[in-house]
């Protein structure tokens, strides 16, 4: 029996294979510990396969996966889905074009989420073109309605977000795209950490450079991602872009107290990482 009703969706078999593969990659890269994280993949406008609760993502098997509808009803499977599926279901309802969602706890991205620092500086061309800026959803109690409510504002405009004091969430047109975006978020966070403190310098792109990258991003079919903060945002009066934050609230290098506060937080993150990894 198959719940694949619409063209453009993977078959049940294809969806489950991809979920298991992403789970193995997630565990192998230490993006999750123990039984953390969850993955879902739509196979029709109203149904999706998802990972079970209480199982390591690196050791899942086909029969553990659960078929649900968008109201959270279990249609097939003997395992219980995670309470965090509420977060996935909200993504699908807010943006029906999304077909897959990945939630993980990658160490550096999660550290930024704990520190309250969004990934929004235009320092990496690939990040601007691929995922854009990654905002932070406000803290929400796990397993409650607060979690889906916290991410709802970003689902139509961005490709992922950090979850305050929790982890990261990405989505996409396939399970593999959602996973690749998770990898990109962690890489963006790692580069931000290194340039922010270990090297101590990051040359942000100008607003003109950011604009051209976003134009290329749009031409490639990616219409979401927001606009990272550019170098010129340090002076609102000279920046020609309406999305520029500018002034004392701008997080660009050398742009005032907000930048200094972020630098101090990043420094603390780096010290903690170095201490934990024994560098």
Oligomer: single chain
Structural class: alpha+beta
Describe the biggest sheet?
A: 8 strands, mixed
Placed side by side, the strands forming the largest sheet appear as 4-3-2-1-5-8-7-6
DSSP strand count: 8
- By CATH, the topology of the largest domain is L-fuculose-1-phosphate Aldolase
Overall pLDDT score:
87
Sequence of secondary-structure elements? HEEEEHEHHEHEEHHH
Key descriptive features of the protein:
2 domains, about 10% strand, about 280 residues, disordered N terminus, 8 helices, L-fuculose-1-phosphate Aldolase, 8 strands, alpha+beta, single chain, eight-stranded mixed beta sheet
Describe this structure as you would to a colleague:
The protein has 279 residues and is an alpha+beta fold. It contains eight helices and eight strands, in the order αββββαβααβαββααα. It has an eight-stranded mixed beta sheet, sandwiched between helices. Helix 6 crosses helix 8 (257-277). Mean pLDDT is 87; it is low at 1-5 and 245-260.
